[in-house]
Amino acid sequence: MAEHPEVPESEGGAVETILARDSRYSREAYSFLMASLQHTVEKLGERRHVSGQELLGGVRDLARERFGMMAPAVFRAWGIRRTEDFGRMVFNLVEAKVLSKRPEDSIEDFREGFDFGTAFEPEYDLEPPSGA
């Protein structure tokens, strides 16, 4: 269970309130977003404000790790079609006072963060071995 944390109990009520007024994204999507935020902070090595682009990097990394090439299908099942959807979810959580933002933070920070069609393709090393 710790490998796939849920929305913490203290935030679960806020997510339920969000879902009651905006049902575009599933509860699982919010759980994954929060896990991605935690993953991003751990990867940065310090607890600090995370930019939209940094968070999208964490989303991409964690999705690769958990879902591999199936990540776009998982995201679609959760109501997520493009990276801006993660931004909308973040701003829903800001409005619910689960997350905070700085004045310069914007939904635009999440626009065209990465292409769902290519971001989760396996990476191959096409360089021939040295000496070959």
Give a brief description.
The chain has 132 residues and is an all-alpha fold.
Structure description:
Helices cover 51% and strands 0% of the residues. With 132 residues, it is an all-alpha fold. The chain has one domain (9-110). α2 (27-44) packs across α3. The longest helix has 18 residues, at 27-44. The chain starts with 8 loop residues before the first helix and ends in a 37-residue tail after the last helix. The model is unreliable at 1-6 (pLDDT under 50).
| CA-based shape | globular
List unreliable stretches of 5+ residues: 1-6
**Major β-sheet profile:** none
Q: Can you count the beta strands?
A: 0
SSE arrangement, N to C: HHHHH
Q: Evaluate the radius of gyration.
A: 16 Å
Domain unit count: 1
Mean pLDDT: 87
| Class of secondary structure makeup | mainly alpha
Put simply, the count of helices is 5
How far the N terminus sits from the C terminus, by CA atoms, comes to: 46 Å
Amount of beta strand: under 5%
**Helicity, in percent?**
40-55%
